[in-house]
Amino acid sequence: MRLLTTTILATALAAPVFAADPELTVFDWAGFEEPSIFQGYIDKHGDSPTYAFYGDDDEAFQKVASGFKADVVHPCSQMVSKYRDAGLIEPWDTSKIPNFDKIDPKFLESEVFSDDEGVWYIPTDWGATAIAYNPETVTEEDVSTLQVFVDPKFQGRISLPDSSDDVWALAYLATGVTDWTEITDEQFAAAADWLRQAHQNVAAYWADPSEQAQLMASGAVDIAWSWNDGVTYLRADNYPVAFQRAPKEGSSTFFCGYVNLKDGPGSEEKAYDFINAWLEPSAGKALLDAIGYGHSSTEAMATIKDEPAVAEGLSETGAPILAQTPNSPEQRERQLAEFEKIKAGF
């Protein structure tokens, strides 16, 4: 299954999954092509943008840096500085984005996103990374701690994301760290040692939420470090899955959004139409239903505040949280290099 899904993903990444409006190319995570999320764009132009997909933020950056042409890309917050430092993006003109002032200010606090030169990032969506598990084979006591990932009882029964940011968020939490903006050498070493222990239990590193859902639905694994969408997909298929966001060490949160690539091959006007469709309040419900994520717009969140999926997957838990906000590029590169060694068995 790992080989099959990896082959399928590689094929998907080699070219757009579907070519639609040729005047706008969106380079995005698989799953975000759901038309209801940007319905306003379709209403105006009669079709979806052309999409190309990736499964990992670092992979997406490398492809764009190597010359892949698109108009907008959907990185998570900790990646924006890399796009800026590489000179790949330009600021958005917020005068062309009527709902920009509806974005919750907490998503724009970093100078990486907004400074004297302009607004470099339009946050759109956010979610949690926590423990997805099969309650028919795993007990609540088992998942009351992140140490379930290193428990010998579950050797060969867990899956972790093939994402450096997410696995390091897990490892830092598991070793008592909830702020990754100031990591000491000792904290890094402790987290790396913990990840090496967890690696012994890993049946597969999932490349995207669909693959994670397939691994769990097939019975290949019982526990995964999961985003909201993996749980959403499993529930849509009536698979028994629970989402533990309050183990004693805590869980992680992240947020993502769109950057405007320099010299995009398509229509700049349509790039703004796409962003404006995303920021419509109606996109909140569409995003929640399709993927299980929250929306950056306070108006959009107000429309879904009473939804059960918000209560379970997005609300406050009282447990510690490691927020995946921007950290130093040097630290991210160090983590990425170490993660590659760990996956290789070193």
Short description:
The chain is α/β, with parallel strands linked by helices. It has helices at residues 2-14, 39-45, 57-65, 80-85, 164-174, 185-199, 209-217, 228-236, 268-278, 282-291, 298-302, 308-313, 329-343; strands at residues 21-29, 49-54, 72-73, 89-90, 114-115, 118-119, 122-133, 158-161, 202-206, 223-227, 242-244, 251-261, 294-295, 321-323. Helices cover 36% and strands 20% of the residues.
Write the layout of secondary structure elements.
Layout: H1 2-14, E1 21-29, H2 39-45, E2 49-54, H3 57-65, E3 72-73, H4 80-85, E4 89-90, E5 114-115, E6 118-119, E7 122-133, E8 158-161, H5 164-174, H6 185-199, E9 202-206, H7 209-217, E10 223-227, H8 228-236, E11 242-244, E12 251-261, H9 268-278, H10 282-291, E13 294-295, H11 298-302, H12 308-313, E14 321-323, H13 329-343
Parallel strand pairs: 1-2, 1-3, 8-9, 8-10, 12-14
Antiparallel strand pairs: 3-12, 4-12, 5-6, 7-10, 7-11, 7-12, 7-13
Helix pairs in contact: 2-9, 5-6, 5-13, 6-13, 7-8
Describe it for me?
- It is found in: Periplasm.
- This protein has helices spanning 2-14, 39-45, 57-65, 80-85, 164-174, 185-199, 209-217, 228-236, 268-278, 282-291, 298-302, 308-313, 329-343, and strands at 21-29, 49-54, 72-73, 89-90, 114-115, 118-119, 122-133, 158-161, 202-206, 223-227, 242-244, 251-261, 294-295, 321-323.
- The protein is an alpha/beta fold.
- Strands 1, 2, 3, 4, 7, 8, 9, 10, 11, 12, 13 and 14 form a twelve-stranded mixed beta sheet that branches.
- A hairpin with a 2-residue loop joins strand 5 (114-115) and strand 6.
- The longest helix is centred in the middle third of the chain and has 15 residues, at 185-199.
- It is globular.
